[in-house]
Task: structure prediction
Amino acid sequence: MKFLGRWMPVLLAASVVVIGVADYLSGPDIGFSLFYLVPIAYGAWHAERGLGVALALLAAAFWIGADTAWVGVTPVSMWNGFTRLGIYVAVAWLTSRVRQDAREMQALNARLHELLAEEQQLARTDALTGLPNRRLFVDELRRATARIHRSRKPVAVAYIDLDGFKTFNDRLGHAAGDVVLRRVAEVLSGQVRGTDVAARLGGAQFGVLLDRCTEDNARTTALRVIDQLTAALKEATGPDVGVCVGVACFEDESYSPEAMIDHADAAMYCAKGQGVNRVYVTRLAASGPSASV
Result:
C-alpha cells in the first residue's frame, strides 16, 4: 500500500497517457473522453484535489491534441476541448469534495459513537467509586438468572451495608466519607472473581453478584470479604464504622433481579441484628428458603 501510494500519481498519469494515445490512434470515430474520467476521479478520491485537477488538465490536453490532429483547429474543436476541460476539472473538484465530506462524516460518526459509549458508561457506573451502579447490577442479575436456567448452576447475591457510616459522614464531612466509600470499592474489586460483579447500590450499600457460586463458596467468600472490609474500615475510620453482609443464594431462575436484591437485603438485616461485622447466609431453593450464619 505504501508503494502504491508513493507511485499513484505516476501510475495515474501513465494511464491518462495510455488513454490519450489510444484516443489519437483510434481517431474521432471512437470517443475516449469518458475513459479519462476514471483516473481523474480515482486520483481525486484516493489522493487529493490537486492531483485530480492535474490529471484533468493532462487529460484535456491529450483529448484536444488527439482531436485537432484529426480534424484540425476549428471553433467546434476548441469549444469541445474547453468543454471537456471544464467537465474534467469539475469532476476532480466534486470527487475530492465528496471524499472530504465523507471523511468528515466518518470522523463525526466515530466521535458520536465515542460520546454515546461514554454516556452509556456514565449512566451505568457510579461516579464516586467507579463501580457499576444499581442499574448495571440489575442487568447483570438478569443475565445471571438466565445462566441458571441454562447451566443449572446457582448464583449468590451479597448485600453489604456500612454500620455507623452516616454518623461518621455527618461528623467528619462528605470528603472523609467519600474516602471510605472508595476504599470499600477497592476492597470489593480486589476480592471478587473476574466473573463476579461488585456494585454500589446507593449510599453506603454495596452489592456483589457471585456467579455460579454454591452456598458454601458464598459463605467462604463473604467471610473473606468481611475480614478485608473490617481491616480496611478500622484503618480508615477506627471503630466508628463497621460492616454487615447478607448473602442470598439462588438455585433457580424464578426470582427477579429486584427480588434477589431484596432477599439479600433481608439477610443483611439478619446479620445486623446479630451485631457488627457479621455475615448471614440464606439459601432460596424450590423447596423454600433455609438460613445459616
Observations:
- The mean pLDDT is 87.
